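call fold(seq) -> tokens
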Amino acid sequence: MSEKKPVIVYGASGYTGRLVCEYLREYNIPFIAAGRSNEKLNAAMKSNVAGIETADYEVVKVPHTVAALTELFKGASVVLNTVGPFAKFGGEVVQACLASKCHYTDTTGEQDWLITLEQEWGTKFANAGLLLAPGIAQMYTTGEIAAQLCLETPGLDTLDIAVFWGGSPTIASTQTILVNAAMAKAYYLEQNKYVEHQPDAGLYNLAIPGQHELALALPWGGTSHPVWFKRDPRVANVKVLGGVFNRALMLGVPQIVAAALEATKDMNPDDRYAALAQTAAGVMNTMPPRENPRVNKSLDSVHASGPLGRAHCVIYGNSNYKQTGLLQAYAAAHLLQQPPKRVGFASGCQAFGHHELLGQLRSFGLVSKPVLTVHD
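ret:
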């Protein structure tokens, strides 16, 4: 191998990994596309990454072990991890990043994984001067940007967040959603303490900006926001709901999850994971088509309130997976040029700044100007 490329995309052959590579090319950042199969990696780069012929990259096959990943990461600066479910596969990657002195980001929405990272790895990464930034993705970061814009108004301590998108989840996202729903609890934040969502609460009806029809929503595992804002002294309460605009698809989700839970309730963890993964494959086993901005729309809405004030921010966008790819690539671009605003465990906004991230999303045409209304 020649001089080590500074950025490694782990899981580069997957749907999200390909988009991360595409935006790294646009930022003119050399990278290694890493994963378990040279054949899949080469095929993904050549067939699915726009403009790959002008990118400075190489493909590397690597076993999913701490030793092999540590060896691969040595000499690099940033690892962008897209291999989920992260609670099952992320530990080796994080351990290898710390051993090889690399910053770590991922695209997770698994709340239990974030809590584990904060509790077990946050201080270790901080002491090493490294960033540990899980959950840099549209479903979490774009909503966090909206929340941070609301919180620029002093005296607001409660965040009511809704995240919606058009289209279908990828294979990996479907597996993560189903496995996480079955094997982990989901929390919201109330007076700075985690409170468990009731697992049998069913679908929520939400009035979301921009349409007359009520939208159907779920807690989606609690999401990242309660974990990030638990460390923000301005915020005491955070609750997040989300879903897809496709009402028929949303109606089917609780039934699929309930059936899977019932069928696997007496299994040991390993057998249960395998069974749930098989169920997820039955729901989604093909790569979605490349996003169409006329179809794959996104909406992030945040109501922020306090004793005497209110703010509401809406960010309309498109192509949620492309938003994720861009956010990951910008994280790498930032880290290669200057330290993050915070080391150790941090969200995308905490590490890079919400105005900076918003500027990138807007400059690439993925979100519109936020609609911010303040009542104080």
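The radius of gyration is 20 Å.
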